[in-house]
Specification:
two-stranded antiparallel sheet; alpha+beta; 31% helix; 5 helices; 5-stranded antiparallel sheet; 178 residues
């Protein structure tokens, strides 16, 4: 499967599964759900940012799904595509052979369990490492305290927004999550 790829723009191979259930041999698992923030909660969050005159900083978890626990599903393999072959040529001096497959050892994008595994992983970091508490009715909106400052944390899969009274606190929260 060849994915759109521009040399010079992407410096690393981008691997993802094709989660299409119509494909031959695909398996649908029961535990694929991951919580996502709903629009009313986003509006409350941004309303609080404006009301309190807080600074908000957005962040994206790079390589998020690969950071989560590996899936428990039967072994999954992906076909080596053109971007990966070119990456091998740049790194190792020779192309990966056409038609070869790689075993997936992490929850990569498109894997049926990836969202749930990532959601559990990042939720544990936010609650246990940072000590933030999810709100009662929205599991993707958290409140906590860092260095004596109130912090609100909004997560949407692997995208975040952190808001606090000053930018240094926001950056410190993002660094702690990293």
């Amino acid at each position: 499967m060849d994915l759109p790829y521009q040399i010079g723009r992407n410096k690393k191979a981008r691997c993802r599964c094709n989660g299409n259930t119509d494909r031959k041999g695909s398996i649908t698992l029961a535990h694929t759900y991951a919580a996502c923030v709903e629009k009313p909660a986003q509006r409350v969050y941004w309303g609080l940012v404006a009301l309190k005159n807080y600074t908000a900083i957005g962040a994206d978890a790079s390589n998020a799904f690969a950071e989560a626990q590996p899936p428990k599903a039967p072994p999954l393999h992906v076909l080596v595509d053109r971007p990966y072959r070119e990456w091998c040529k740049a790194k190792k001096g020779k192309y990966a052979p056409k038609g070869h497959v790689l075993m997936v050892h992490h929850a990569i994008q498109g894997h049926p369990e990836a969202l749930r595994l990532w959601s559990m992983f990042i939720d544990e970091i936010i609650q246990e490492k940072l000590g933030f508490t999810p709100t009662t009715h929205e599991r993707c909106l958290y409140k906590g305290v860092m260095d004596g400052y109130e912090v609100l944390f909004l997560r949407q899969v692997d995208y975040f927004s952190v808001t606090a009274e000053n930018e240094q606190i926001c950056n410190k929260v993002i660094e702690e999550v990293s």
